TrEMBL record, chain A:
GO terms for biological process: peptide transport; protein transport; transmembrane transport. It is a multi-pass membrane protein. Belongs to the binding-protein-dependent transport system permease family. Pfam families: BPD_transp_1. Its main location: membrane. The keyword Transmembrane applies. This is ABC transporter permease. The lineage of its organism: Bacteria, Pseudomonadati, Pseudomonadota, Alphaproteobacteria, Acetobacterales. GO terms for cellular component: plasma membrane. PROSITE patterns: ABC_TM1 (PS50928). Keywords: Cell membrane, Membrane, Peptide transport, Protein transport, Transmembrane, Transmembrane helix, Transport. Residues 64-253 form the ABC transmembrane type-1 domain. InterPro entries: BP-dependent_transpt_permease, MetI-like, MetI-like_sf.
From TrEMBL, chain B:
InterPro entries: BPD_transp_1_N, MetI-like, MetI-like_sf. It holds the Pfam family BPD_transp_1. One of its GO terms (molecular function) is dipeptide transmembrane transporter activity. It comes from Neoroseomonas soli. Belongs to the binding-protein-dependent transport system permease family. Residues 96-301 form the ABC transmembrane type-1 domain. It is found in: Cell membrane. The chain crosses the membrane at residues 102-124, 136-159, 179-197, 236-262, 282-308. It is a multi-pass membrane protein. GO terms for cellular component: plasma membrane. This is ABC transporter permease.
Automatic annotation (TrEMBL), chain C:
The keyword Signal applies. Transmembrane segments: none annotated. Belongs to the bacterial solute-binding protein 5 family. It holds the Pfam family SBP_bac_5. Its main location: periplasm. Residues 91-444 form the Solute-binding protein family domain. One of its GO terms (cellular component) is ATP-binding cassette (ABC) transporter complex. This is ABC transporter substrate-binding protein. InterPro entries: Peptide/Ni-bd, SBP_5, SBP_5_CS, SBP_5_dom. Keywords: Signal, Transport. Residues 1-27 form the signal peptide. It is found in: Periplasm. GO terms for biological process: peptide transport.
Length: 262, 314, 531
């Protein structure tokens, strides 16, 4: 249970950074000054400065909202679309189940990074396109989860009973199956979060993420990689923040799993 | 059983066909083609563009390009790289061997670290040691792999004045060089997988140790060693093996960034370079291969599962 | 680190009249120019192998049909044209021995070097030269270099060691065109095979000092000494291995740990990590490359010259250079730094070079944008300097109320847009062979003679570019290009910001490596290693 609590504390910490980054980091993440480029951490710049003299602390703190926001949003889309289609497929079955299932198979056979590269290749790099790419990558996962959960529900007696009582399929789906499947999807959401975060950072590291000057952890890491021998601070801190936020979600996932009895 | 196999194979074939078509269309939807890259930003004129486009068959209708490609694939020919001129099948296989070596070495290292850690953590559940191992798991699962690799590269240089040679040598060419090249990427990848492994095994052990037969064994006076290793561990072997398959698939899919970070000529880099250069035959052939491999591993894992555990027989 | 390793050779030698090529001799065995490929070392040792780290890798090795800079960098080791593009702007005879232009300028006669053998063992004759350049100039063969030879109407080979290029109009830049960027002299007939392009990934068929030994994509590229090479005693090295490196930090690490002997850094400040490294020298060279902002005259509000001028007046090139390459370069006006002395106009005589926000705002208001406007500025993924330059320029343009959205494009997409003349408002990073005609003509001459990628379509500038190409007299030529540059600065179809110095780092055991301003590896021909 302590792990669960640690996870919540970390989550609260990141929530503060997301809601009020300016409250934590006083400096602007955008103000640049080549005269103070690549300065090591100091009292004035806790995490040092980057190659154009921006405050790395401010960029990392303000990046929280961007990076975690992008992942949150893309997984929400994946959950809504994948989970929704999965529930319908599991409940309705037949040709729809078959077609959607094959489509999910297809998307899932691509390694996530390659899929991300190809999708951003078509759409072009940028925050919203990255969200779309990540969403597409994770739709099959949620499809499967939603489908098997709905499939299990559909066989339960209460569904049969509702049918016999004259409820329409649609209302059974929305009023009875959905509420029971939802917790499973939430749990999966939390479990997938650290994985999606890693992919987001990796795509940013490949230069396919947000456009400058938006502060994003993956983008800061990409910018920092060539300076890593002279300015380790550009690479260390954003990496640690990815690690910490992934850890927070992993802990919460473990806690939730215990709560739901797995 | 035969019916199940036929259904799975049929589904796999449909998935392979669909994804090939998707790759084909997506690659053509990415703006720019090989002709622009060959002529550069300022070279050549319209006539040169048209001549090159005709040379690669890019002037023909899309459906006929795809039909030709598919027809050749069905005859076992993945075509030739537009830049390299070498058979795509050979290039994919060579690159796959690099990736496979990386993946297998990672799997071995992850197993050697992850399984003992998981067993120990499971046995000593709740102890300080267990908590330390769990912390390792947490960090391992959370650290971005490419970031870890970068840190290792810089760390090895600073601490040991050492770096990998960067020029690839296969194990049969120069084993010492081969190991020097792989050591950092394997460690970067293995940390994550060892953590996943250890976490998984810990859970299995705890579950297994709570079962009646262990309690009965304890009552009968069996030593802890007999209990843990003869009974509990042997019972968790089945899920362990299947988990290995999952991990292998995950490693194969996750090596792209590590291959780029350490200049390894593996499958991920081949595909990335193919996408960047718009070398359509390479991208289509390599991804076709990836789809087949992934589908096969999934199928084998499912079959093994069914064989090892009769309850799950479909 | 503040001084250049090479004194800037100025262009007094540029007295390139129709007959004034250095090294011309009618003697049977012409002397070989000691400055070919760079200075000849004393006490050089023969033998040894080196490893060169490179951030980029050629997609393929065909010098006729691959324009990638990574391909051009290594091709001169294997392949040769008729001339060597000396950094000073002099085309030094390479496979040619001498060059003579006809009095009307409509034909050039080249005497060829004797005793040159291809890697295949065949001796080189005029028939091979004719074959190779005929192949290149035929657009149907898809060579990026065809456009530079558009004035050639036919090539004759009157005897085994003479070729004559017949032109539709005079071209003073022809010798500099027949250098080593695109194409080369290869055995006649070799290119007839449709797969000859990819064959060149397996064997080299040039006349150069090194032969291709092995090309392993995504990893290594190995060259070995050509034992039959025609320059006596050259090359010194037995073998050169190019290794594709993941990033510049890895190159620095590789140099420190003795895995690589030489590396060229695309972003000069990345060598800072090596400042105190034992046994590693970092050297700085002037370059023929330039970093620019290009303005598509059909994009957004850029069709109005006042808007383009306002943008130029708001951009502080020095600050952009400091931000993006830590100041390791030279601010330029309208020509690359390496050609400024020979051909450039002093910056204080060019329009729109100094920041003047009031004038910029007045121009914008006059153009009907008193409150500014929104515009996308394009950067290319993988060109690290552009991101820093983009945020700096966005900041500078905000001062005149132009609101910049930065957008990133993958290189292949960017090339497609550029070629389709849809570049928008974009960064660019390009270099040149050191002749003004080769620098400007394709880019700025109105279509169809030029490609006019920026949709500038400027009649007077085009007329000047035609005259500049046709004029042989150096002083007259220089005056023409000075006039052209003044128009370029006034009209702002491009903002040439700065030339980034080329920085190389090498293990000290590697001697006499001289970096060419193009970034190509000519210097390896005369480099040697200590035993």
């Amino acid at each position: 249970m302590t792990a669960w609590r640690l996870g919540l504390v970390l989550l609260a910490f990141f929530a503060v950074l997301i809601v009020a980054p300016g409250w934590v980091a006083q400096q602007s993440p955008f103000d640049l000054d080549p005269a103070r480029a690549l300065q090591p951490p100091s009292a004035a710049h806790w995490f040092g400065t980057d190659d154009v003299g921006r405050d790395v602390f401010a960029r990392v703190i303000h990046g929280t909202r961007i990076t975690l926001g992008l992942v949150t949003l893309s997984l929400l889309i994946a959950t809504a679309i994948g989970g929704g289609l999965g529930i319908v497929a599991g409940f309705a079955g037949k040709w729809f189940d078959l077609a959607a299932g094959r489509l999910a198979d297809m998307v899932q056979t691509f390694p996530p990074i390659i899929a991300g590269v190809m999708i951003t290749g078509v759409l072009g790099p940028g925050a919203m396109n990255l969200v779309l790419a990540l969403a597409v990558i994770y739709v099959p996962t949620f499809f499967r989860i939603g489908r098997s959960a709905a499939l299990a529900e559909a066989q339960l007696t209460y569904v049969e009973a509702s049918r016999a009582a004259g409820f329409t399929e649609g209302s059974i789906l929305v009023r009875q199956v959905l509420p029971n499947v939802l917790p499973v999807l939430v749990l999966q959401y939390v479990i997938m979060f650290p994985l999606a975060l890693q992919i987001e950072a990796a795509l940013g590291f490949l230069g396919l993420g947000v456009v400058p000057p938006t502060p994003d952890w993956g983008a800061i890491l990409e910018q920092g990689k060539n300076f890593i021998l002279v300015a380790w601070w550009m690479s260390l801190w954003p990496g640690l923040f990815v690690l910490l936020s992934a850890a927070a979600m992993t802990l919460i996932g473990q806690g939730l799993r215990e709560k739901f009895g797995r | 059983m035969a019916g199940f196999l036929a259904r799975r194979l049929g589904a796999a074939a449909i998935a392979a066909l669909l994804s090939s078509l998707a790759v084909f269309l997506i690659m053509r939807a990415v703006p720019g083609d090989i002709v622009g890259q060959m002529l550069g930003q300022s070279g050549g004129d319209r006539a040169a563009e048209e001549a090159l486009r005709a040379f690669f068959g890019l002037d023909r209708p899309l459906w006929s390009q795809f039909a030709d490609w598919l027809g050749a694939v069905l005859r076992g020919d993945l075509g030739r790289s537009w830049y390299q001129g070498r058979p795509v099948g050979v290039m994919v296989w060579e690159a796959f061997l690099v990736t496979l070596e990386l993946a297998v070495a990672t799997l071995v290292l992850a197993t050697l670290i992850g399984v003992p850690l998981g067993v120990v953590a499971g046995i000593t559940q709740g102890s300080r040691l267990d908590r330390a191992i769990q912390s390792f798991n947490l960090v391992g699962l959370s650290a971005p792999v490419f970031w870890l690799g970068l840190m290792l590269l810089v760390g090895a240089s600073a601490a040991l004045d050492w770096s990998p040679p960067f020029a690839w040598s296969g194990p049969q060419e120069d084993l010492a060089d081969n190991i020097s090249i792989l050591v950092l990427p394997v460690i970067s990848l293995a940390v994550l997988q060892a953590a996943a492994y250890s976490q998984f095994v810990r859970g299995l052990m705890i579950e297994e140790l709570g079962k009646d037969y262990i309690r009965a064994g304890r009552a009968k006076g069996l030593t802890p060693a007999e209990l843990y290793f003869k009974h509990a561990l042997s019972n968790v072997m089945i899920p362990l093996v299947t988990f290995m398959g999952l991990i292998l698939v995950q490693i194969l899919g996750g090596v792209v960034v590590i291959e780029s970070l350490f200049s390894l000529p593996g499958l991920g880099r081949l595909i990335l370079a193919g996408i960047q250069g718009r070398d359509y035959p390479v991208v289509q052939g390599a991804l076709f291969f990836v789809v087949i491999i992934a589908t096969t591993i999934n199928l084998v894992v499912d079959l093994l599962y069914g064989l090892l555990d009769p309850r799950l027989k479909p | 680190m503040t001084e250049f390793t090479l004194p800037r050779r100025t262009a007094l030698q540029l007295a390139l009249g129709s007959l004034a090529l250095p090294g011309i001799a009618e003697a049977q065995q012409a002397q070989i120019d000691p400055l070919l490929y760079g200075p000849t070392p004393e006490n050089a040792r023969r033998g040894g192998r080196i490893t060169v780290g490179s951030l980029v890798e050629p997609p393929a090795l065909d010098p006729f049909r691959q324009a990638a800079d990574a391909r051009i960098r290594v091709s001169p080791l294997m392949y040769q044209g008729l001339f060597f593009e000396d950094q000073s702007g002099v085309p030094r005879p390479l496979l040619a021995e001498s060059a003579t232009a006809a009095p009307d300028g409509k034909s050039w006669t080249f005497r060829l070097r004797r005793g040159v053998k291809f890697h295949t063992g065949q001796p080189m004759t005029s028939a091979d030269v004719k074959y190779s350049y005929d192949f290149m100039r035929n657009a149907a063969n898809g060579s990026p270099g065809a456009g530079d030879l558009s004035s050639v109407t036919s090539i004759d080979a009157p005897d085994d060691f003479t070729v004559v290029f017949n032109l539709s109009r005079p071209n003073a830049a022809l010798p500099m065109t027949l250098t080593n960027k695109y194409g080369a002299v290869v055995p006649r007939g070799f290119l007839d095979d449709a797969n000859s392009g990819t064959r060149m990934n397996e064997i080299s068929v040039g006349t150069g000092p090194f032969k291709l030994k092995q090309f392993r994509p995504n990893s290594t590229l190995v060259f070995e000494r050509n034992p039959d090479y025609w320059q006596p005693g050259l090359p010194y090295l037995d073998e050169i291995t190019f290794v594709t490196m993941p990033n510049s930090a890895a190159m620095a690490v590789g140099l420190q740990s003795r895995r690589i002997d030489l590396a060229m850094f695309s972003r000069p400040q990345d060598t800072q990590a090596l400042a105190n490294a034992q046994g590693v020298e970092v050297r700085r060279w002037p370059s023929l490359n330039q970093k620019t902002v290009d303005l598509d005259c059909k994009y957004n509000n850029l069709g109005d010259v006042r808007v383009r001028q306002a943008i130029a007046l708001a951009i502080d090139k020095k600050t952009v250079m400091d931000a993006s390459i830590s100041g390791y370069g030279t601010v330029i006006g309208t020509i690359v730094a390496g050609m400024q002395d020979a051909w450039g106009v002093p910056l204080d005589q060019l329009a729109n070079q100094r920041v003047d926000l009031d004038r910029a705002k007045a121009l914008l208001a006059a153009a009907g944008h008193p409150n500014g406007f929104d515009i996308d500025l394009t950067t290319i993924i993988g060109y690290d300097w552009m991101d820093a330059a983009a945020v700096t320029i966005a900041e500078q343009l905000r001062r005149i109320n132009i609101r910049v959205n930065i957008r990133k494009l993958e290189l292949g997409v960017w090339i497609r847009n550029f070629r389709a003349r849809e570049m928008g408002f974009t960064f660019n990073d390009w270099g040149t062979t050191p002749d003004p005609s080769l620098l400007y003509y394709r880019h700025f001459r109105a279509a169809p003679e030029g490609a006019d990628f920026r949709n500038w379509n400027h009649a007077r500038a085009s007329a000047l570019l035609d005259r500049g190409q046709e004029t042989a007299d150096p002083a007259a030529r220089r005056a023409i290009y000075a006039e052209f540059q003044k128009i370029l600065a006034e009209e702002v179809p491009t903002i040439m910001m700065f030339s980034s110095d080329v920085l190389t780092a090498n293990r000290t055991r590697l001697k006499n490596y001289v970096q060419h301003g193009t970034g190509w590896y000519f210097g390896l021909v005369k480099a040697w290693v200590e035993g």
